[in-house]
Amino acid sequence: MIAKELLNILVCPETRQPLYEASADVLARLNAAIARREIVNRAGQRVDERLAAGLVREDGLVIYPIVDDIPIMLEGESIGLEPPAAAPQQR
Fold this sequence. Notes:
This protein is an alpha+beta fold. It has two helices and five strands; from the N terminus they run H-E-H-E-E-E-E. Strands 1, 2, 3, 4 and 5 form a five-stranded antiparallel beta sheet that branches.
């Protein structure tokens, strides 16, 4: 889990939209697709490692992986989400 103070200041480096923590459902869908070898990041590289956590852009179209409790905020390392992930009900 990422510290709330950090989450409050992080934004998407591409669009400057706020981010929220990925839900268990989003992570489960994404990890199932990773296991089927269907996922490439936005740099075009296959994603082979399951995601334990991630930050989803407010529009639900992109997730930034969190690796060893560190958000990887690089556009190329982000993963497009189709269909968009649903935003959380409360922030």
